[in-house]
Automatic annotation (TrEMBL):
SUPFAM superfamilies cross-referenced by the UniProt entry: Pentapeptide repeat-like
Name of the featured protein: Pentapeptide repeat-containing protein
Organism: Microbacterium imperiale
């Protein structure tokens, strides 16, 4: 017998124990921590952790704005109709950006916060060395999306067709790709943390020296990975593991042959 009150035994909480005088029995006065806190401690952590993404916080009314180098725009509706736009090192916040059939949008070194980019059709969207936080990129088509050495936090790319997505040495944290069609995704030396793919296809994924944490590839249909060894700690589906079994075996030093019997074996 423990000498514990029935209410404590049924509480499911670690109690505060004390020795009862005289007989050495162990008793308890009350739980050592609240029940709600104990339940949260016992709850297992989901893996992979989903990206933490919220929609951009845009004002109800936006004022027309023009993208320019070193521009500082807040609450602006930016429209690009033709040609090219140079917004290198611009700061955009609580704004929207749209473009139809343009050659190049230059956002190198730009800082975007709470920005919605919608239905952009451009040969090039250059965002090298930029910082995007709480940004949605929805619809449209891009020949090249250059995000080399960029930092993305809380970014969702949805329903975009991208021929070439370049993100070498980029840091992507809390990023989701949904219903996208990507030709080549180059991410050598990049860091991907809480990045998720859903309903997205990629022809070739360059994963050399990629570092991933909570990288969820289950919704990605990729024809080839440059280096499957870099997918360590990533989560894939059984179907994906079967599709890339030969590459995974080769990475482990396993020889794979089509024939079931060695020719040197006697008949």
């Amino acid at each position: 017998m423990t000498g514990l009150p029935r209410s404590v035994l049924l509480s499911g909480c670690p109690p505060f124990f004390r020795e009862l005088p005289g007989d050495g029995r162990i008793g308890a006065d009350r739980p050592i921590i609240p029940a709600s806190y104990a339940e949260s401690m016992a709850r297992p952590r989901s893996h992979p952790a989903p990206p933490r993404i919220t929609a951009p916080d845009l004002p109800r009314h936006l004022v027309s704005g023009r993208l320019a180098r070193h521009a500082d725009l807040t609450g602006a509706a930016i429209g690009i109709e033709a040609g090219s736009a140079d917004g290198a090192h611009a700061r955009l916040s609580e704004s929207s950006l749209s473009a139809a059939s343009v050659d190049r949008i230059e956002l190198t070194g730009g800082i975007l916060s709470d920005v919605h980019i919608g239905d952009v059709s451009a040969a090039e969207l250059v965002a090298r060395d930029g910082a995007w936080r709480t940004v949605t990129l929805v619809g449209g088509r891009l020949g090249t999306l250059d995000a080399g050495r960029a930092r993305w936090d809380g970014v969702e790319v949805r329903g975009v067709r991208i021929d070439y997505l370049s993100a070498p040495a980029a840091i992507l944290r809390d990023v989701r790709f949904v219903d996208c069609r990507i030709g080549t995704l180059d991410a050598p030396g990049s860091t991907l943390e809480r990045v998720q793919f859903a309903g997205t296809t990629v022809d070739e994924f360059d994963t050399r020296e990629l570092r991933g944490t909570d990288l969820d590839l289950r919704g990605l249909d990729a024809l080839a990975f440059t280096d499957v060894r870099a997918l360590r700690n990533a989560t894939v589906s059984l179907r994906q593991a079967e599709a890339h079994a030969a590459a995974l075996a080769q990475a482990l030093g396993i020889e794979v042959r089509d024939d079931a019997r060695d020719e040197r074996m006697p008949r």
